What does this fold into?
Amino acid sequence: LNIQGLIEALEAENAGIRKRAAAALRTLGATQALPALRDAYEKETDPEAQMTLASALEALKQKTGILVAPPEVADDEPSVTKCIAQLQSDNVETVIQAARELGDLGDKIAVEPLVLLFNDHKQSIHVRFAVAEALLKLESAPIEVALLANLRHSDWHIRRNGAAILGQLKAEWAIQPLARALKDENHVVRRTARAALKHIGTPESRKALAQADNITQRPPMRPDGQQGTENARPVAPRTGMLQRLQPAPGEQPAETDTPSQSSKLSTRHLNPTRPLDPEVLKQLEEMYSDHSETLDNSKNEEEE
It folds into this structure.
């Protein structure tokens, strides 16, 4: 092949031609094309061509380094060009590390390749999440990625809205931060994050929900360091909070001093000689409301 012709093709008007020329120069090991590739990379505006140029530059630089210098003096410091080239790696861990380094380096020349990678739905959710984090650091995140920042906002309303929209978008890449939101201090945010993960409906989102439920329902530690239910507050079942408080068959409900509350919620007292404390009743009602929407959604999904 004509190396000079390929070098001249790096300045073609068509981005596809520029991309193919860079790939060909890399395949041929044309180290003499390094200056032209560097100039083309700095002027390139097409994200895909830019990534191909970066990959060619990095490969040829390594080839030159092997020829003229021993490995121990090679430059191991991360560079924007090197990291952009690594975004095309077949190794997931390499891509994730490259995305993180690009975010830390803070050079906005990496924005376009990162956005291109984020929009590639064939990438794993872990890669897309790492890319989203990098774009946030570069302050150049697209709208969908900006919702990730909402999950970390001090205002719980904004955290809730972010979780809700990510759920509606079925943002698989956001499963990890949504799973963290299941531990949010605000019960509305927790409930919304749970609904979002259910709506995403992938094996990864169901696994995140199952892990969260397992942690929530795990018996507390006894004084001897073992897990068990002894001296532990019972965990309410996931279904039938009200049913759990109904009188047993054939049992008469105990009289209470709070008829207005008992008319709303029929209860069975743990101690028949004393009425259920209104504060305890209020807490139980809040617990039920915290679960009711999720339970209703679960039933609807099962029926469907």
User: Anything to note?
Assistant: The chain has a mean pLDDT of 73. The two ends are 61 Å apart (CA to CA). The chain is about 60% helix and 0% strand.
